[in-house]
Specification:
The chain is mainly α. The protein has one domain. 71% of the residues lie in helices and 0% in strands. It has helices at 9-21, 26-46, 49-62, 67-76.
């Protein structure tokens, strides 16, 4: 199917440059990119915010952070009162 859309010149130049790096033409690159974004957006849309929170909580219960992981992050935190 042919669809006509208007794109910014700078965006087209960036698309062409990156497509060339991946040995693709503009159409292939745009189609591949849109498919990836659509797949990601479908996955995001699939779950409510509450469901996502529950999945994160379940994942942390199944695989809690180790003491070493917590310590590593504590060392790089920047506290304003220090």
């Amino acid at each position: 199917m042919q669809v006509v859309i208007e794109l910014d010149e700078k965006l087209v130049a960036e698309i062409d440059a990156i497509a060339k790096d991946f040995n693709k033409n503009r159409l292939q690159y745009i189609n591949d990119s849109l498919q990836k974004v659509l797949h990601q957006d479908k996955r995001k849309r699939k779950y409510s915010e509450e469901e996502v929170r529950k999945m994160y909580a379940d994942a942390y219960r199944k695989h809690p952070q180790t003491a070493e992981e917590i310590e590593e992050w504590e060392e790089v935190q920047c506290w304003e009162d220090e």
